[in-house]
Specification:
α2 runs parallel beside α4. With 125 residues, the protein is mainly α. The longest helix is centred in the last third of the chain and has 31 residues. The termini are far apart. Helices cover 78% and strands 0% of the residues. It has one domain: Four Helix Bundle (Hemerythrin (Met), subunit A) (Up-down Bundle), CATH 1.20.120.50.
């Protein structure tokens, strides 16, 4: 398992919590995907992540969230990293993209959810 769902990931905002559960489930699913299907899987993960970030951006804009720029910058950094991993996978370097999912994304998600997403969820309440 790449990342176990933890109670501290729950923010009390239904849409954000649902999207976060989906993200964690996708990270965990990555271990089951054969190399032959990995690129399609990674494309789906990136698409889900972009939609996830777009939805949060809309919440930040609509609620005039003061820390929007920092939150958005963190999202943009992760999307850029994921796009780099996508390029590696397209060139056959699937092990690098798999390692990124397993070693980078879980730590990033834990910190991001506990800090930036928690602040956003509290702001929305």
């Amino acid at each position: 398992m790449v990342l176990s769902w933890k109670d501290e990931f729950v923010l009390g905002h239904e849409a954000m919590d649902t999207t976060h559960r989906e993200f964690v489930a996708l990270l965990n699913r990555s271990e089951e995907i054969p190399d032959s299907d990995f690129l399609d899987f990674f494309d789906s993960l990136l698409e889900h992540t972009r939609a996830h970030f777009d939805a949060e951006l809309e919440l930040m804009k609509a609620s005039n969230f003061l820390s929007r720029r920092e939150h958005e910058d963190d999202h943009n950094r992760i999307v850029a990293e994921m796009m780099q991993m996508q390029r590696f996978a397209r060139r056959g370097m699937i092990k690098i993209a798999r390692a990124y999912i397993k070693e980078k994304l879980p730590d990033w998600f834990g910190v991001h959810a506990a800090s930036m997403d928690t602040a956003l969820a509290l702001h929305l309440k």
